[in-house]
């Protein structure tokens, strides 16, 4: 029963993140596709519509179906891992769930349009325009890496058991 509650809450989280991502992209397309810019926090961030046909920072533009296939395969593998009860750590479980939600958000765009809608533009530094799904992938990946590093270092610090023999 404990696993079922965990799976239901993870599924709800994924659906909510994907929905928020898709809704914000819809409004960005509706209000900003004409080239207009909406100041959000002056000097920090603004909203500007952009279409990204590649992956991060528009790398490998034009490989639409390769990205669709790769993202789909990774998401299926992650779902299998999450929902097969093999994932024992909640940190690992939730971080993978957040990464998957971002992957799904961008997968929907790439499959539907051939590009990902980006609209969040930092103005305090020269940086790429991104979206909510990108934020989810990044935040989930940071937590995942933190978990893996913590886990690796905690294994190193554990005293080794001496064998009698």
UniProtKB/TrEMBL annotation:
UniProt keyword list: Aspartyl protease, Cell membrane, Hydrolase, Membrane, Protease, Transmembrane, Transmembrane helix
MF GO annotations: aspartic-type endopeptidase activity
Active site: 118, 134
Subcellular location: Cell membrane
Main EC class the enzyme belongs to: hydrolase
UniProt pathway: Protein modification; lipoprotein biosynthesis (signal peptide cleavage)
Source organism, top-level taxon: Bacteria
Membrane topology: Multi-pass membrane protein
PROSITE patterns, sorted: SPASE_II
Catalytic activities: Release of signal peptides from bacterial membrane prolipoproteins. Hydrolyzes -Xaa-Yaa-Zaa-|-(S,diacylglyceryl)Cys-, in which Xaa is hydrophobic (preferably Leu), and Yaa (Ala or Ser) and Zaa (Gly or Ala) have small, neutral side chains
Bilayer-spanning residue ranges: 7-28, 65-83, 90-108, 128-150
The keyword Ribosomal protein belongs to this UniProt entry's keyword annotation: no
Matches recorded under PANTHER family: LIPOPROTEIN SIGNAL PEPTIDASE
Function: This protein specifically catalyzes the removal of signal peptides from prolipoproteins.
Similarity comment: family membership: Belongs to the peptidase A8 family.
The protein, known as: Lipoprotein signal peptidase
